[in-house]
Specification:
Elements: H1 2-56, E1 62-69, E2 77-81, E3 84-88, E4 92-96, E5 102-107, E6 113-118, E7 121-126, E8 131-136, E9 140-145, E10 150-155, E11 161-166, E12 171-176, E13 182-188, E14 195-201, E15 207-216, E16 219-228, E17 240-247, E18 253-258, E19 261-265, E20 269-274, E21 280-286, E22 293-296, E23 300-306, E24 314-320, E25 325-331, E26 337-340, E27 344-348, E28 352-357, E29 362-367, E30 372-377, E31 383-388, E32 391-397
Antiparallel strand pairs: 1-32, 2-3, 3-4, 4-5, 6-7, 7-8, 8-9, 10-11, 11-12, 12-13, 14-15, 15-16, 16-17, 18-19, 19-20, 20-21, 22-23, 23-24, 24-25, 26-27, 27-28, 28-29, 30-31, 31-32
Length: 398
Amino acid sequence: MAEIKSYIKEKNKRIQKQTDYRDKIRKHKLTAVYRVLLVLAAVAALILLAVVQYRHHIYTNYDIISSIEQESLAGTRNLRLGDSVLTYSRDGAHCTNSMGEITWNQTYGIQDVKTSVCGNTIAIGEYNGRNIYVANSEKLLGNITTTMPIRDLAVSSAGEVVAVLADTDITWVNTYDSSGALRYQGRTYMNNSGYPVSVSLSPNGELLCVAYVYVDTGIIKTNIAFYNLGIIGDNYSDHLVGVYPYTDMLVPYVQFMNDETAFAVGDGRLMIYSGGYKPENKGEFLYDEEVKSVFFSDRYIGLVFASDDSEHLYRLNVYNAAAERVGTYYFDINYTDIFFGKENFVIYNESKCQIMTLDGIEKYNGSFAKSVELMLPLGNSYQYMLVTDASIDKIQLK
């Protein structure tokens, strides 16, 4: 009996030791987990602090981190072409990359230059002319020759071009690939469908938007028409997949933001359409003021009005591709250009620059050291390229 009691006692001791050992292991593991969680929490807090400081950091000056000399000729103009600079005149055009290297050069003789840019692709034509030059930031893509005088044109990022061509009593809206091959041909009559005052191609070249304006019993009317130039459009008459009529309203401007979103600016309304195959009206915004300028990116639309606040000159209303109003912003710079970043926008002229986030935080408000002809972003770290009459400068805000 004593041996049994002794055995049970020893067994209970072993069990207790095992339990204590397991408790120690569990406590050790919990301690290790708590330590990891504390480290992660500390790291997250530091990251959050850095993000908050970054978002609220105010820049007061900039450093020129590199500068490339260039000679600016009289009569030339500069456009942003992706991360490169397109310089053109009546005599020709050339493209300069961020390293200051000329990637291509094209000579021509054009009196009234018309251009259309989509991303890093450009079409250059002549009003009333018959030649269109197509290129991207890396190379020349092709040359298109039309059979009738050019009135308007638009380009896709892939190099397709839509050209509005004048005939005797017909206006043609033709689409070509960059080699000059005719891809789609459409005709309009003033007394029927109206005159095409604005055209735009989606970046992938699949969708075409045309604003037709006509007068009916003394009333101006506009039809916004969408054509699908792809396989789906083959199932529709004339590839026409949708028409949106607007009575007593002139709509002089249509534009694709991305492959699935387009917008139209009328004399009293902004319309946003969405759909990669058959665009539908996503939303509308009314106004009773004159639109002074229109700016856009693949995510945002900006309409500039005269300010309704006596303390400022201008008001910028910003909308996104989801047909939501992002915000209203006031500024006083007599701007030459405005462009959007991912979460901010830049307003500038030859001597001044203002940068604001879409949250309304002013990141920079200052002057340029040189007279600036063109400003374009380089990444998301507040680096920019400044094109002046004597140099191309890369700057970093500080």
